[in-house]
């Protein structure tokens, strides 16, 4: 039997960050992971491989559609699908081996196997080399999430697949139907459409990426349509069928009108559910809610005082950086520190091109809750930097409090929005005003100037730059 101060179950961004912070604070720490590689969904089949493929396909699309305007001729442009996927796997491998290094550097014991609770204070790990009993003063459950399905859809992983299988395809699909126009749906649609797959997105809501400010989804829809992606909104998928070498999707609109589509692959991206299978929670007093998410308090403590839970398994935004923040919060709470997470200051990013990024309240939230606001919106087409780079799609929109000018929300669709949002997070987190934000200097020409202009407009001043 091994004893630890902190045992972390699951090695995704929640788990590995928690383990590292725990070791930094001097705790004897173990991390238990059932898969052979560390890094969880994010590193193995989520954030990292999708961004690698989004990057490759972005280069390919630019080479096809933009290089000639820049005066660069390449002759016939070729796509080596297996090389593109090989590079993606190499990027993943570099990250997972980097995590192995970080674990050993921080003297964290990496235990390979499936962890299950025996009771509130003991776990058993079943690995290739047999069983091991572990007793820790504190446990952190960071077991993440798995793709959800909907009634009538059987994900057979052959023709009816999830993002995970899409990341290990052997050849470029000719056609693909994606169920769900959320974050995974639009990122996957971009990857495949850019390499010539005919992609159709079938979405239940009346716009894409529906949890974000609605203007972003509407703008993204126009951009993706221009790229050749078919987008069917207000459609509810109720059945899929594997036909052997293709698959069929059946859906109906709000009036009940039925339609069907056939494609090489049907990719199901209708959300993700908490993963606690095999964890033995039933042998503890840890409680879960009606959807299976582990219930926690403001410090991520479960109903058992020495068991914490973080990341996708507790719900909220399913984002790697949200899981990371919770990992740090838990360990620092164990350490007697007190630093709450401001969930409203956690940014969301969609890595299409242009990128989409948000922090704070959406306009819909402010309207629905009768919160007064002023807004400023500045188009990328009016940015000198955007014009120089041929990236003129999109806008930056800031929502501010009309009395004090406090930043309430920032929503960007445009080139490098993923990085631009960082300054808005600072404004949001530290209650900086719009005036503060426009009185600081922005390098010219940069995409960041679109934000300066939006703050100026929201504050009642005209734009000053082009
Ligand atoms: P996970 O990363 O899911 O890790 C959980 C780990 O626990 C897994 O490795 C699992 O094997 C292990 N485990 C489970 N049960 C046990 C057990 N009993 N014993 C031992 N080990 C166990 N988020 C972003 O912020 N940015 C992105 O760009 C982004 N892109 C994404 C793209 C895709 C296609 C997907 C699917 C997700 C993406 N996400 C992204 C979401 C992000 O991956 C998750 O929010 C994040 O991984 C959650 O981290 P976690 O630590 O809670 O769990
Ligand atoms: P999602 O919740 O973002 O989108 C699911 C979509 O499916 C919704 O728009 C919903 O209306 C639609 N849908 C549900 N049932 C349907 C039906 N029967 N017919 C048609 N449409 C239907 O979920 P996701 O895209 O699967 O992503 C899962 C999680 O992974 C998200 O919470 C996201 O935060 C995370 N993720 C993040 C990133 C990122 O940060 N860039 C990337 C990928 C995934």
List keywords for this structure.
single chain, 466 residues, alpha/beta, FAD/NAD(P)-binding domain, 3 domains, 5-stranded parallel sheet, globular, binds flavin-adenine dinucleotide, binds nicotinamide-adenine-dinucleotide
Task: Describe the protein.
This protein has 466 residues and is α/β, with parallel strands linked by helices. The chain has three domains: 215 residues, FAD/NAD(P)-binding domain (3-Layer(bba) Sandwich); 111 residues, FAD/NAD(P)-binding domain, CATH 3.50.50; 114 residues, Enolase-like, domain 1. The chain is 32% helix and 26% strand. The chain has 13 helices and 22 strands. The strands form five sheets. Strands 1, 2, 3, 4, 5, 6 and 17 form a seven-stranded mixed β-sheet that branches. A five-stranded parallel β-sheet has the order 8-15-9-10-11. Helix 1 packs parallel to helix 8 and helix 3 crosses helix 6. The protein is globular and about 65 Å long. The chain binds flavin-adenine dinucleotide and nicotinamide-adenine-dinucleotide.
Show the helix and strand layout.
Elements (H helix, E strand, L loop, with lengths): L1 E8 L3 H12 L4 E5 L6 H6 L1 H19 L15 H25 L3 E4 L1 E6 L2 E6 L2 E12 L3 E3 L12 E2 L1 H4 L8 E5 L3 H12 L3 E5 L11 H13 L3 E3 L2 E8 L4 E7 L4 E6 L1 E4 L3 E3 L32 E3 L10 H15 L13 E3 L4 E6 L2 H6 L5 E6 L4 H6 L5 E6 L6 E8 L2 H13 L4 H6 L9 H10 L8
Parallel strand pairs: 1-2, 1-6, 2-3, 6-17, 8-15, 9-10, 9-15, 10-11
Antiparallel strand pairs: 4-5, 5-6, 7-16, 12-13, 13-14, 18-19, 19-22, 20-21, 21-22
The protein binds flavin-adenine dinucleotide and nicotinamide-adenine-dinucleotide (NAD).
The site of nicotinamide-adenine-dinucleotide has 27 residues, from α6, β12 and β18.
């Amino acid at each position: 039997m091994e004893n630890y101060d902190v045992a972390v179950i699951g090695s995704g961004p929640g788990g590995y960050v928690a383990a590292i912070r725990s070791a930094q604070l001097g705790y004897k720490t173990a991390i238990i992971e059932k898969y052979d590689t560390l890094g969880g969904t994010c590193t193995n089949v989520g954030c990292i491989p999708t961004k690698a493929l989004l990057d490759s396909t972005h280069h390919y699309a630019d080479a096809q559609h933009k290089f000639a305007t820049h005066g660069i001729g390449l002759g016939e442009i070729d796509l080596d699908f297996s090389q593109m996927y090989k590079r993606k796997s190499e990027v993943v491998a570099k990250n997972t081996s980097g995590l192995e290094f970080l674990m050993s550097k921080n003297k964290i014991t990496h235990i390979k196997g499936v962890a299950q609770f025996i009771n509130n204070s003991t776990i058993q790990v079943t690995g290739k080399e047999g069983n091991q009993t572990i007793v820790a003063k504190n446990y952190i459950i960071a077991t993440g999430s798995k793709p959800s399905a909907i009634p009538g859809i059987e994900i057979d992983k052959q023709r009816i697949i999830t993002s995970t299988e899409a990341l290990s395809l052997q050849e470029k699909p000719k056609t693909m139907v994606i169920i769900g126009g959320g974050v995974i749906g639009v990122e996957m649609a971009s990857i495949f459409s850019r390499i010539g797959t005919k992609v159709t997105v079938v979405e239940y809501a009346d716009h894409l990426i529906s949890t974000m400010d609605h203007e972003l989804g509407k703008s993204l829809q126009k951009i993706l349509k221009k790229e050749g992606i078919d987008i069917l909104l207000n459609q509810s998928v109720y059945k899929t069928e594997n036909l052997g070498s293709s698959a069929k999707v059946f859906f109906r609109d709000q009036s009940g009108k039925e339609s069907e589509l056939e494609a090489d692959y049907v990719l199901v991206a209708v959300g993700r559910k908490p993963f606690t299978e095999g964890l033995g929670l039933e042998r503890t007093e840890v409680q879960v809610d009606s959807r299976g998410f582990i219930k926690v308090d403001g410090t991520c403590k479960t109903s058992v005082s020495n068991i914490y839970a973080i990341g996708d398994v507790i719900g909220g935004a399913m984002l790697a950086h949200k899981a990371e923040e919770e990992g740090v919060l838990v360990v620092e709470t164990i350490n007697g520190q007190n630093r709450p997470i401001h969930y409203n200051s956690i940014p969301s990013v969609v890595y299409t091109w242009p990128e989409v990024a948000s922090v704070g309240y959406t306009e819909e939230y402010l309207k629905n809750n009768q919160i007064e606001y002023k807004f400023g919106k500045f188009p990328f087409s009016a940015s000198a930097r955007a014009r120089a780079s041929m990236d003129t799609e999109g806008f930056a929109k800031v929502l501010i409090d009309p009395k004090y000018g406090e930043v309430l929300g920032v929503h960007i669709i445009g080139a490098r929005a993923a990085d631009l949002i960082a300054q808005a997070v600072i404004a949001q987190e530290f209650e900086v005003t719009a005036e503060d934000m426009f009185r600081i200097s922005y390098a010219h020409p940069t995409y960041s100037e679109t934000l300066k202009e939006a703050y100026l407009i929201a504050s009642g001043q005209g734009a000053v730059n082009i």
